[in-house]
Amino acid sequence: MQTESLKEKYAPYFKIGAAISPRDIEASGALLKRHFNSITCDNAMKYGSLTRRPGEFFTAPADAVAAFAKENGMLLHGHTLVWHNQTPDFIFENTTPERLLETLRNHVQRVKEHFGELATFDAVNEAIEDKSDAYLRDTKWKEVLGEQYVSQVFRVIKEELPNTRLFYNDYSECRPEKREKIVRLLKEMLAEGAPVEGMGMQFHCALFQPEIDEIKRSIEAYAALGLPIRVSEFDVSLYRDNNEKQFPAPDPERLKQQADFYGQCFRVFREYYKEIDAVTFWGVADDTSWLNNFPVLGRKNWPLLFDDVHEPKEAFYRIMDF
Ligand code: GLA
After folding, report:
1. 230 CA distance to ligand 1 centroid (A)?
2. Which of 169, 282, 290, 294 to mutate to test the pocket of ligand 1 (most atoms within 8 A of CB)?
3. Would you place residue 195 in the very low, low, confident or very high pLDDT band (cuts 50, 70, 90)?
4. Left, alpha or beta for 51 (phi > 0: left; psi -120 to 50: alpha)?
């Protein structure tokens, strides 16, 4: 018999979040209300969701999520302002650095006018290149604004959102080589006085990946910069790689390993709770996870704490058991 909720159990440590769409409110409203106290729009607040063509500001899905968060006294975390994906192409056409910064400023102003000033926002998402031979990812933002663009956009965003804590957010953030590049970027920004105020560790994991020692080292490396951390997109794939065929049903041994891994990660999060603001999952329950279509289209996955019919899994009990 499950008595305590996740958010109650973790109240002394950090907030427990879920990144959701309006359909998750329909499908998993009760679970969300019971276990979570922080909400992120998984897609609805992205630039390209709000604005697909000049002048458009389409807020209905984000409004539904924001209203749900408000009604239930949950924190609403903003995601995301500057990214290479899901951003309208037209903003980069026939522009200049000055004009692009002005376009971003107008976008941020609209976001603020409409949603109010949120406590926290992912200002820049995924600016670091994965490949070894490059530092920053080649994006249209960089193409127009140049190598210093991350600091520049943080400054513009801060001018419009003075009361919002601005995060840098990225994936593979525990891989040593990428971590070093992220730390370099954050250090450069801090040295220039650019207003980066938090580090979002996406935490898209597979079984026992990343290794626990690397997770600790990474939390320590980001926290050493004086930045609070949000675990921002946690999930744990049951597959080892893209070539594995779909399991007809979740493999019991893998589910056990998943529970072990979730348990180990949360032990580390509790150990470093002073550095961590929130631990957010990318989704609520296995039935609607993005991993059911990524990286292999249509390959069913079971990466979260609640199963396809929204019952708690072994992983849930494991992170509650301490
Ligand atoms: C990245 C982004 C998120 C989301 C996930 C996958 O990690 O930061 O906004 O798109 O991929 O759903």
Report:
1. 15
2. 282
3. very high
4. beta
